[in-house]
Amino acid sequence: MNDIPVFGVQVAGCSYVHRPSAYALIRNSAGQWAVVRTPQGCYLPGGGMEADESPQETVEREAREECGFVLETRPPVANAIQYVYSVEEKQYFEKACHFLEAVIIGTVQPEEADHELLWLTLDQAMACLLHEAHRWAVERAARQAL
Fold first, then answer.
1. Which runs of E-coded beta strand occur in 13-142?
2. Where are the domains of the chain?
3. CB 44 within 8 A of CB 138
4. DSSP assignment, residue 129?
5. What are the tens digits of pLDDT across the range 9-47?
6. Which of 23, 43, 72, 76 is 20 to 30 A from 136 in CA distance terms?
């Protein structure tokens, strides 16, 4: 079995909340990546999984809320652990990240006004994505597409 890569630094003596999460790897016809800019930074579309929610359901819900995308998702293509501190929630998290490729099959009105959809080249996405696990997943998906 493949080892799951771990990103970020686990601070000794701090309590971490385990948060299963799922993120979409979405490219447009020009080969650009969908990235969401929030007040906290840039991320792949996605987020924390709700109780009894699959990675596919999480990505479909989050992409609809954040970007207005209706998605057709594939099974997870990569998994990683990302240690983070949320200033907004004042909490340390161990994010168990699932990364799924997805295709846009429709659009609706996004629900989160403080989220901005960006279409970025690989280099631009790598430069702006906040979490190392997100950069790793995009780079991995780009290599597999070659």
1. 16-25, 33-38, 41-43, 46-48, 69-86, 91-107, 116-120
2. 6-145
3. yes
4. B
5. 999 999 999 999 999 999 999 999 999 999 999 999 999
6. 72
C-alpha to C-alpha distance for 51 and 123, rounded to whole angstroms: 35
126's CB contacts (< 8 A; 6+ apart) are 135, 138, 139
Query: Which of these, 67, 55, 72, lies nearest to 19 by C-alpha position?
Result: 55
Query: In whole angstroms, what is the distance from residue 63 CA to residue 55 CA?
Result: 12
Give the Cα separation of 15 and 1 in Å (integer): 28
CA gyration radius, the chain: 15
Segments in the chain forming alpha helices (H): 55-67, 122-128, 132-145
CATH for 6-145, among 3.90.79.10, 3.90.550.10, 1.10.530.10, 3.40.1390.10?
Answer: 3.90.79.10
